[in-house]
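hey so i finally got around to running the thing on that chain from the lab meeting. sorry it took forever, my laptop kept dying and i had to restart like 3 times. anyway pasting the input first so we r on the same page abt which one it is
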Amino acid sequence: MAPFLSKIKNLFISTKSHTATEVIFVLGGPGAGKGTQCALLVSSLHFAHLSAGDLLRAEQQREGSEYGALIKNYITEGKIVPMEVTLKLLENAMREVIKSGKEGERKTFLIDGFPRQMDQAVKFDESVCLSSMVLFLVCPEDKLVQRLLKRGETSGRDDDNIESIKKRLQTFIATSMPVVEYYRKQGKVVDIDSSATVEEVNEEILKGMEKIIPGITKVAA
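ok and heres what got predicted. didnt touch it at all, straight out
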């Protein structure tokens, strides 16, 4: 195990107690509202939010990036970027959050859009830490398409077009659903109907989180 991974792993404790540092995965199809809901949780509970997709897009646009062209190609084709690239970007981002905090400070990470396939889930569990919970945002496919096309009018993203959207949805069903079931067998999944209003979805998320880790929504600082 790399020195940094070893250091990170020691900082994370998989537990049902809200006194430890936790990692919460936020999964759902493209357009399910992962970013929106994570932003609300960051605002109200002061969690640290890391979006795998945002990290990849930022790296794609970073001048001199050795992964930029590769990432752009994978995203445009609706494919999953190689695990090593995504995991490295997450590691770097987590390290920065931990370095900026106080010694011994409790930190809850929301990681959205990851893991997207089984090898990512297994590698993260083995090399970084065991997650505490998975928030799974469920929404009908037709509504996801409508949301993404609407977002595409202003987002400027390469993948907010109907062709890429269809590919992304197909990829999600084929690769991410096994991940959800993997964690469901561990009793970690909270199913959330994300077709409702933003406020209603947020309320259900808070209730669901309390069922898995009692007290986690009461510890904002």
